[in-house]
Specification:
Number of domains: 1
Strand content: under 5%
Largest sheet: none
Number of helices: 7
Low-confidence stretches: 1-6
Shape: globular
Radius of gyration: 17 Å
Structural class: mainly alpha
Helix content: 55-70%
Mean pLDDT: 91
């Protein structure tokens, strides 16, 4: 999510980059509270599922703005453009999985096909996107990110992508038992991944526009 706004501008609704950061932050907040048992007990499973769906739509909205912003510079910053393109595809997979989860429950015969599979594809897209964005900033996956706001954003988002991937692993439903591989892992990694994206999104609100040039 290499989105930039004017340094120090926490309120800049006329800037598309500001909206990108706000939309990603709001979507991250939905995925952060959604897996929490206390929130689930408070609102119930139907509302909880709706929160995830709304969060996925917010991600897609932010991802669309990011992709549109990356298009003009796609020849100079190919990795950045590919990262935003793959991430946008991932958000669409999350739209599908969270929408189907509104009416499908764990243990139904088609759950893995209808819900888990697009979730896994979305998580994979996010992982590829996060890796590309990190390489764009750090120069390589094994390199340390620069001590800049953009470097922290890239690192935080990559950690979030890894956590989302682990969440997909834990959320796979075993056909024999009809239960997830590890529900606690799936919920914890979803919340951790969302926290990583939330940190990155909030930092993007004040990121120097020169960092994306």
């Amino acid at each position: 999510m290499s989105v930039t706004t004017q340094e120090g501008a926490l309120w800049a609704p006329r800037r598309a980059a500001w909206w990108e950061a706000v939309l990603f932050a709001a979507g991250s907040a939905c995925f952060l509270v959604g897996p929490l048992p206390a929130f689930l007990n408070l609102v119930g499973p139907e509302t909880d599922a709706l929160v995830f769906f709304v969060g996925s739509l917010l991600f897609t909205s932010g991802g669309t703005l990011q992709w549109l912003g990356a298009c003009p510079a796609r020849h100079r910053r190919r990795l950045d453009w590919w990262s935003s393109s793959v991430q946008l595809a991932g958000t669409l997979f999350f739209n599908v999985t969270t929408f189907r989860a509104l009416t499908s429950t764990v243990g139904t015969p088609t759950y893995d096909e209808l819900v888990w599979r697009p979730d896994a594809f979305g998580s994979l897209c996010f992982l590829v996107s996060g890796a590309l964005a990190y390489v764009e900033v750090a120069g390589g996956l094994t390199h340390r990110p620069p001590p800049t706001r953009e470097g922290v954003v890239a690192g935080s988002n990559l950690l979030g992508c890894v956590a989302f991937g682990l969440s997909a692993v834990g959320g796979y439903v075993l056909p024999a038992s009809g239960s997830e591989v590890n529900t606690a892992l799936a919920n914890a990694m979803t919340a951790l991944g969302a926290l990583g994206f939330l940190v990155g999104s909030l930092l993007m609100l004040r990121q120097d526009p020169a960092a994306a040039q």
